[in-house]
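Z., the sequence and structure:
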Amino acid sequence: MTDAKRDCTNLKHFDVVTPLEEAEAIEKYCIMNQLSISGFFRESAKEKLEKEKSIVKEKPTGRNMLSMKLKIETLCSMSGISVTELAARFGTTQQNFAKRLKVGKFTQEELIEIAEAVGAEYYSGFKLPDGNEIQ
């Protein structure tokens, strides 16, 4: 028995809904490769995350940090607009914005403009151990 099976506190459950044809193909693949359905999805997710290393970057402190690309895409999703719409509100083309998004480099002023374009607030700063903050 693996540590993960013994200690369920480090696991998260996902319900996955797929079209019947895809589900049958996955089941067939799992039988042929002696994989559980859960194992199939875990391995698929690992492969996807490896390819998309820009999604979550590891900070030197060991804490996970979302990439700027994912933060902005999440901002759009939660604001109910597309990235294309945000680009228009930001005053640039979708193609140009997509290039900038891929690199993930925006000035603080641009991040404030992006937030304002969706009615949000952008904040950035440092919090020192003594409680002082620099913003």
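Helices lie at 3-6, 20-32, 37-51, 68-79, 83-90, 94-103, 108-117. The chain has a mean pLDDT of 80.

Let me know what you think.
H.
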